[in-house]
Amino acid sequence: MSTDCLLIGAPASGSGKTTITLALMALLTAQGKRVQGFKVGPDYIDPAFHHLVTGRHSYNLDVWMGGEEDVCRTFENQSQDADISLIEGVMGVLDGVSSDSNWGSSAHIAEILGCPILLVLDIHAMARSAAAVVKGFQMFAGGASIRGVVLNRAGSSRHAAMVKSAIEQETGVSVLGYLTQDASIVLPERHLGLITAQETSEESRRKLEVAGRLLGENLDVTELWRVANQAGDQSKPVVASRTHLPRLSRRPRVAVAYDRAFNFYYPANFDLLTRLGAELLWFRPTSGERVPPEATHLYLGGGFPEEYVEDLVRHPDILADVRHRVLSDRVPTLAECGGYMFLGEAIWSNGQRFPMVGAIPMETEMTPSLQELGYRELTVLSDGIFPSGSRFRGHAYHHSRIRRSSGLVSGYEVSSARAPMAPEGHGIPNLLAGYSHLYFPSAPEAVRTWLQQGLA
Questions:
Q1: Active-site residue, 72 included
Q2: Alpha-carbon span 350 to 136, nearest angstrom
Q3: Where are the domains of the chain?
Q4: Residue 297 near residue 252, CB atoms below 8 Å
Q5: In whole angstroms, what separates CA 407 from the centre of its chain?
Q6: Which of 5, 72, 115, 337 is catalytic?
Q7: pLDDT of residue 1
Q8: Cα distance between residue 115 and residue 93, in whole Å
Q9: pLDDT tens figures, 30-66
């Protein structure tokens, strides 16, 4: 590890990790620092906001999907030319895959990277009790990495000073600063979290700048750098060398749908594609852009197509073009979640039917309740774009379900901690589609096989 770093954790979701992380990024970037962002876990939305603020792609650090070596390698590769790396945690700082250990948690990531933890504490309606919360984390396994605290939703400067005094007196951990409760810096949300960075307005951009300035007014930046520099005192993991996968002799050209409706992708997936020799061709279906004619492969990621169905149906020629490329040209295609819905016959939203591509014999509908959430392990059922038996790790999170289908051919089997193994999606020789988001580094050889197709 070649830079200073901080992992921004919290006792629970909703404490302000994202707010403080983005405010720190905005503050340090405004000071001319090269800030590299990371996100613990499989989230797609927060990293996009990191990118919006820092101008650098933010990467997921996920032990379950990629393993410890992938986490260490990703961190080392992406942070080497940054002045500081800021890692946004997930859920509570000790919450991981199991309730019996820290494995897969933010604390686990901090441990294997030797990164100090900056604890975000929501002190709304709390004073001296805040010290007990910090003390409790100190006493738990993994709590020793907590080297600083930032207070969120302070009622006033006096309130923040009271809490700071109690925490530092009882725990010895420095309180570096605080943000007051301020509606002017609250970002808009929807059912999967924040409105995505690709959809954000200038007002949201302004809010992030304001958040950085407000935090800067009440933050000891010198102490922040001292805490971040403690990463240099930690032992560093030994990163195993990456399994060498030779670049393809011919260049695949992968068309990637990327716009307001389709933007849930792991940057590590794109890195693997380009490392194998692929050229990425971006197109925006909601803006009426066709699949680039030179494309040899097609990648339709997740996002919010249901929010932009009117934009999509406004371009029937684009829908027909995608259908032709998948069904007639037989371009090797991967579609995940929103891309899966897009390839169906229709999306139902607010009781209205919107025709889609029609390459998959199904219709989907939005529901008020969450249909699926969590990690997934996938086994490909038959030879197609990936070899039969290929095993991926990934994640699913969606509010839609299949309303009607006829003739779906299950593409893979999915197992999870909450449900027994079950078939999912649709798989034909040149198409694999389903609700799961795949993490490509979990099965790089299978990804290489996909890219080899369509090049003969």
A1: no
A2: 46
A3: 4-233, 253-452
A4: yes
A5: 33
A6: 337
A7: 44
A8: 13
A9: 999 999 999 999 998 899 899 989 999 999 999 999 9
